[in-house]
Amino acid sequence: MSEIDGLYALVVEDEPAWRQIITEILMECSFDVDVAYDVEGAARLVQQRSHRLAVVDLALGDGQATNQDGLHVLEILRRRDPGCATILLTGYATVELAVRVLNEYGALSCLRKASFDRSAFQHLAKQALLAPPIFETPGSRVPSALHRAAEVIPAIAVGSLLGPVLIVEDDAGWRSILAELLEDVGYRIRLCNSYGEAVGCLRREQYTIAVVDLSLCDAVGVCDATRPMDGYQLLSMAQRQGVPTIVVSGMADPSDIECAYEYYGVHAYLEKQVFDRRAFLQAVMEAQEAGKAAQELSTLTAREAEVLAFLTQGMTNKEIADALVISTNTVKHHLTSIFDKLEVHTRAAAVAKATTVGRSAELNSP
After folding, report:
1. Which domains does the chain have, with CATH numbers?
2. How would you write 25-39 as a 3-class SS string?
3. Which of 29, 56, 31 is nearest to 42 (CA)?
4. Which of 7-11, 107-111, 230-234 has the highest mean pLDDT?
5. Residues near 297 by Cβ (< 8 Å), separated by ≥ 6?
6. Considering only CA atoms, which of 220, 269, 222 is closest in space to residue 244?
């Protein structure tokens, strides 16, 4: 191939074994491969020509966890070759690092060497090969359509204690981040990278929680962030099935956020630009509690639901009895049954469970 017609990939890796592995895979994917061992060598190659894909090791040189020379390479590529898709490959990945790499450097993905999967990496490389180069506005932190390419994530280990949780995210790096966080606290995960796949999952299985990105790409990786209809349809489907939903999205327009809360009843809406893992895990925990409370509330009889509705208004047993034209002993009987079903021991705790899932208005309706 000529330099004009060639599809060049850049590998920046100081370990010979990893250089060989990555280079072989990229050559199998029809790339011409340039190789560098450090920041200076990478900068020279970037200056010489453009690349379609760059695979960069985080620690170059001393191989210590504190070494982050690879980020300097990503910055060089972002400034000098903005049409180049980048993958950070590292043995020292953390959630904070992965979020930073995806948001600040617009990387295609952040992959851990410890869980490296050859076929998944090959899939990413082919996505970069097939997609046209995209030149983003300098300094932009919003991933391009190319940066939405899908990756086949290795299967989650069997034996998780919690879950299942459905994650619907077309960005490989974000799927990995969310899955890792939830795996670490014991959830069983089902990963989907498209609307069609997610619909099938929702129809086949009941989920404890759904984590959904509003802006989903189509089968060939083309994404229109101004048309989040697929994401909204998934929110609607999850809502009908009573699955508490958390949105994790790069769409931060107030109208999108208000719509998700008002019309689709999402439990939380988290923006990728300011993603915080503690806030995410807190939202997951609260969503799980809300889902559990909703299931318990669904076991109440119609009369028990009426009693609980009046209870949320602060009414006494006598006031509830007068309103329902029943005896106070009957009210006490209903309250005992309500407490048992909701697994609480006080009136305040029962009210808290009802309001946790926003059921007060529904219980008050005729």
Report:
1. 8-148 (3.40.50.2300), 162-293 (3.40.50.2300), 299-364 (1.10.10.10)
2. HHHHCCCEEEEECCH
3. 56
4. 7-11
5. 305, 308, 342, 353, 354, 357, 359
6. 269
Is the CA virtual torsion 36, 39, 44, 50 positive or negative? positive
Estimate to the nearest angstrom the gap between the alpha carbon of 191 and the chain centroid: 9
Separation CA 35–CA 54 (nearest Å): 10
154 φ/ψ sector (left φ>0, alpha ψ -120 to 50, else beta): beta
Q: What is the pLDDT of residues 86-114, one digit of tens each?
A: 999 887 767 778 788 888 888 888 888 87
pLDDT digits 0-9 by tens, 108-133? 888 888 778 787 788 788 777 765 55
- Threshold 0.85, pTM exceeds: no
Judge contact between 153 and 143, C-beta under 8 A: no
**Structure tokens that stand for 293 in this block:** 């409370």
**CB neighbour list of residue 360: distance below 8 Å, 6 or more residues apart:** 309, 312, 354
Q: What angle do CA 52, 53, 56 make, to 5 degrees?
A: 150
- Tokens for 111, please give them: 């992959």
Q: Is the CB of residue 71 less than 8 Å from the CB of residue 58?
A: yes
348: buried, middle or exposed (CB in 10 Å: 19+, 13-18, 0-12)?
exposed
Per the document, the length of the chain is 366
